[in-house]
Amino acid sequence: MTILDIQGVSKSFGGIKALSNVSFTVDEGSIFGLMGANGAGKTTLFGVIAGQIKPNTGSVAFRKQVITGKRPDQICRIGISRTFQIVRPFAGISVLDNVIVSALYGAAANNTHAEAREAGLAALEAVGLADAASQMAGELTLSGQKRLEIARALATGAELVLLDEVMAGLTPTEIERMVETLSELRHSRNLTFMLVEHVMGALMQLSDRILALDHGVPIAIGTPTEIAENEEVLKVYFG
Ligand SMILES: Nc1ncnc2c1ncn2[C@@H]1O[C@H](COP(=O)(O)OP(=O)(O)O)[C@@H](O)[C@H]1O
Ligand SMILES: [Mg+2]
């Protein structure tokens, strides 16, 4: 079943066409990868889906409900949450308090502090950060901060989670663990992920389908194998 339906989305910043007529659907329970060089429009697309950026044309529908034009907090409560490429936790409060804030903000009906705390602890557990709960968020390693970003997205109760370069800057071992965490999460929490990643091995391994963007233009969509063999993709990536 389709969870996300993007039709004809375009977005310009001044003279730059960040997205040109982008259309695709994402199946519930799948991992959908986005690839493209720096400036291809990947983060802009996440911004459009999560409501931070208004597209010039086109529509975004989540479970058949059109969400284009809704505010980020409304979209979050409907069930979509994203991480940011540049991690931005509340550095001066604990790891646990960070996820409690997200749980209070999000889609799940965590009305009381106790419920939010429980949802927050479960999210930390899910990403392997339970032991760091009482640490200040600013004291985490980069890998820890990336995991906290994911935990914050999970704590909102989101069903669709957009992950923006959560493996960037990690060591090969940390990347391997992150791949394991994401494939576990997908099944244990029945989540749908969209993944922006320059770590090609991880993107290919995790994704069911991949959309390749070149300067905002969709050039190919398909399984990892199809993308790896696509002539347009090979031309853009390897000249
Ligand atoms: N807020 C903005 N204002 C102006 N230009 C922007 C803004 N956000 C993105 N862009 C431009 O849009 C293009 C796509 O950017 P982005 O979506 O961040 O690409 P990616 O995430 O694929 O690297 C780039 O040329 C970038 O400079
Ligand atoms: Mg980006």
UniProtKB/TrEMBL annotation:
This is ABC transporter ATP-binding protein. Keywords: ATP-binding, Nucleotide-binding, Transport. It comes from the Bacteria. PANTHER family: AMINO ACID ABC TRANSPORTER ATP-BINDING PROTEIN, CONSERVED COMPONENT OF ABC TRANSPORTER FOR NATURAL AMINO ACIDS-RELATED. InterPro entries: AAA+_ATPase, ABC_AA/LPS_Transport, ABC_transporter-like_ATP-bd, P-loop_NTPase. The keyword Nucleotide-binding applies. Residues 4-238 form the ABC transporter domain. One of its GO terms (biological process) is L-isoleucine import across plasma membrane.
